[in-house]
Amino acid sequence: MPLMATATGRGAVLRAFGEPLTIETAEVPEPAPGALIAEIVYGGVCGTDVHLHHGKLPMPTPVILGHEAVGRVWQLGPGMETDLGGNPLRVGDPIAWASSIACGRCYWCLVERERTLCEQRRIYGINRRFDEWPRLSGGWADYVYLHPGTAVFRLPDGIGFEQAIALGCAGPTATHGVLGLAGVPVGGTVAVLGSGPVGIAAAMYAHLGGAAKVILVGGPANRLALAHDLGVGDVHVDLFAVPDPGERARMVREETPGGRGADVVLECAGVPSAVPEAFAMARRNARVLILGQYTDRGETPFNPHEITRKQLTVFGSWAFGEGHFQEYVQTLPQLARRFDLARLLTAYPLADANRALADVAAGTVMKAVLRGGAA
Ligand SMILES: [Zn+2]
Ligand SMILES: [Zn+2]
Questions:
Q1: Domain residues of the chain, as ranges?
Q2: Three-class secondary structure of residue 324 per DSSP
């Protein structure tokens, strides 16, 4: 393995849960055959990073955080001539890449063919250690080493880095859950619970998929106002202004033809009580996707009779695979034509990673990104 160092790069390293991240440097290795080195423009901060920082999900340490990022090709390993879609790759090209590589050998990969459920998935910024070669394996950094098998895609022409990082991992999470599993009712009504990045991404894809009306239930008011300004959602229900979930569900049903309820309900709120609220907004025979419960936040009471009586289809969706990531990259031009994606961003210097994490935890920004070496 050639290991001649040609540069060093910084990374924001999680060494102990709950403690501030430290900015550390590591040598940039030569890429092996099939690998590439990306110089990072932006590393996105996701709500999951707040949970990781506090040790709420299993992961090793030390790790450079950051499972969503965009950047430029800095060095191509031998044999790396195209992206996964077949487009030629050259040094300097703008790229995005999927955060995880499934093992391709296990029951979930081979029999179920659900690579998102692979239990041996290796994920940049989560379970690749900073104290093991090649060290630079997270997105909150100047460079990242992208191993062979990483789903790398060249950004479509005309798409800037701000646009490509604006939805972060919520983008491909939504192409999987919303387009892939829930389906968008063309000419129908979609209710979205939650106005964070997952809810915004889900609502954008509901618009893109042909829903006649998208009802966005969320808060606080500044997030809903931003959604409104961007044209995300046709109707906005502020859950702080309407604290009674029964009243919110009634307001949503009132916005649907015949008051029947939404054809599809997308739960993207991340609080367990949003699940029975989603049932209450759904019409009979509706599909209800539970997309927001990425962290175990406990239980919630609901009446199962409602599922039977309404003949609901209720299902979950976990993360995203290479194909969902490609769908996300390929729909960026359509999203960007319709929505001013860059307005979602608040950018921080890499050295301010702790401040960015705190702001995401407090919900004061919609989408925080850290500037890497190529920004
Ligand atoms: Zn994420
Ligand atoms: Zn597997």
A1: 7-168+320-371, 170-316
A2: helix
Q: How far is the CA of 110 from the centre of ligand 2 (A)?
A: 7
| Torsional class of 142: left (φ above 0), alpha (ψ -120 to 50), beta (otherwise) | alpha
pLDDT tens digit sequence for 173-200: 999 999 999 999 999 999 999 999 999 9
Quick one: tokens of 159?
């798409």
Residues with CB under 5 A from ligand 1 (ion): 46, 48, 169
Of 215, 158, 163, nearest in space to 189 by CA: 215
Question: Tokens representing 206?
Answer: 């509901």
Express each pLDDT in 308-347 by its tens digit. Answer: 999 999 999 999 999 999 999 999 999 999 999 999 999 9
What token pair was written down for 19?
Answer: 């403690």
**Ligand sitting nearest the alpha carbon of 103:** 2
Is 170-316 in CATH node 3.40.50.720?
yes
CATH of domain 7-168+320-371: 3.90.180.10
3-state secondary structure of 341: helix
